[in-house]
Amino acid sequence: MLQNESIEARIACVLKALPIFLNEVPEKLTKEYLDINSDEAQKEQDQTIIGIYVINHEGADAMDPPAYVGIIIEGVQGLEDPADIPSACALLLGIIYVLNLSHPPDLKCTFKVLQKIVMEMDGASY
Q: Is position 19 within any domain?
């Protein structure tokens, strides 16, 4: 991360680390695949309730931008090709809010932190 100083890369690192910090499984929020493993990716996406998937080029460096980012809702690709992981996460929060979906139980704490701290939507009136 020290080589890449873009704010998007830093936010993506924080978003990937948040479930780990909260003792949840990070692959439940963001799952990464190589572009050569499309069959494996499709099988796993069909079983995903809600999350973000990232497809990287084979042989790409960790600092390279992803080839493709998308959002999955109940096994269906809900939104295709947001700009990056932070944008996909913000759009995912918006989709959950607009469709009045409940947070996935495996990521309950992660989504509460994103909702209450990052988005400042704690339900309290000021």
A: yes
Residue 84 in 3-state DSSP? coil
Q: What does the block give as tokens for 18?
A: 């948040």
**CA nearest to 70, candidates 100, 38, 32:** 32
Query: What is the C-alpha to C-alpha distance for residues 4 and 124, in angstroms, rounded to an integer?
Result: 37
- Count of structural domains within the chain: 1
pTM of the model: 0.81
- Give the mean pLDDT of the chain: 84
Angle at 109 (CA atoms; ends 105, 25), nearest 5 degrees:
70
Question: Which amino acid is residue 76, in one-letter code?
Answer: V
Q: Which residues contact 92 (CB under 8 A, 6 or more apart)?
A: 50, 51, 52, 71, 79
